[in-house]
Amino acid sequence: MGKIDYKYIMAYFYRLFAFFFLLLFLSGSQTATKQSFAVNSVLGDLSYIKRFGHPPRPFVSPQLRVQTHLNYVETALKATNIPHFPPALRKQRQHLLGLLKDYAQTGRFPQNFEYKNQSRPVFIDRNGNICAVGHLIAKTAGLALAQKLDQRFHNAYLKEMQDPQLQRWIKESGLSPQELAMIQPSYEPAPLPKNPEDPSVVIPSLSLDAVNLAVLLAYWIPIEDPTLYQGSRLGGMVIGGATVGWGLFNYGDLQGELSFKSRLSLANIGLGLATFLISFYQWQNPPDSVHPNQPQTWTVGQYPSYASQTAIGVNYQHRF
């Protein structure tokens, strides 16, 4: 039976590991492209671009984006030519557009507490703030209908809301389903309150990281005893694996961005993985014995002690 080339096996393992994380990154990127942060499903961010000359940049006020959108749509719909509309529908249309203008000026819009990674419509949020279309319905058909639609279609787009009372209201509104869809905003994820850091997570995580760093630093000291060498590397693999498991167990929370807990968990995963891989590689590839003619060496091994006993210790030799 031929000798196993562990270096080849480890090289293959590293390539496989890198390929796995590349696939994970690409799959995450594809998922992210499907998530929309536009303020409207029909017009996108056209209103903001028309007003400011560029798409909305990060950290722009969500209230400003919604208000800009509603003002833009109200102006555009008011300028639309509708000669074929009967007088009653024209009057109702103008009434609704007036309500929309007043609503936009209030600046009291719902918040999206349900979707933390994309913008979505919200009919009535947990604080009682109602959306633009919901406001028009509540003012002309009653708040009860708006609340009923919220219970059935809380985060739905208008085209997904199949309800006889809603369809009847649309026909009598003087606005087409497409125009109402142009009005309906999507709301950015609401920032969630920061949770206090949990000591039961932070303290063990920092302790594990410290142990991993100590293990990696200790690897600089050569060990001449084969049994002790192999045992220390096996111990490093156990410590590294436990740290990775702890990091995976605690990763993720309800915050819209990476919290300190999640960042600490990522540090656990990275440091634990490094300890495990380095320990595994050195366990499979022990170094040659320390050369006796080296000018100075640090070694860890078993040495004679008192009463004919042996003990594990650090030995320093300097050759003059």
Strand order of the largest sheet: 1-2
Question: Sheet bearing the most strands, described?
Answer: 2 strands, antiparallel
Percent of sequence in beta strands: 5-15%
- The coarse silhouette is rod-shaped
- The protein's oligomeric status is single chain
Report how far apart the termini are: 46 Å
Total count of helical runs of at least 4 residues: 11
Give the helix proportion (percent range): 55-70%
Low-confidence stretches: 27-34, 290-296
Query: Could you tell me the number of beta strands?
Result: 2
Determine the structural class based on helices, strands and strand pairing. Answer: mainly alpha
**Average pLDDT taken over every residue:** 81
Would you list the SSEs in sequence order as H and E? HHHHHHHHHHHEE
Q: What count of domains describes the coordinates?
A: 2
What would your notes on this structure say?
With 320 residues, this protein is mainly alpha-helical. It folds into two domains: 138 residues, no CATH class; 125 residues, Methane Monooxygenase Hydroxylase, Chain G, domain 1 (Up-down Bundle). The protein is built from eleven helices and two strands. A two-stranded antiparallel sheet has the order 1-2. The longest helix has 28 residues. The two termini are 46 Å apart. About 5% of the residues have low confidence.
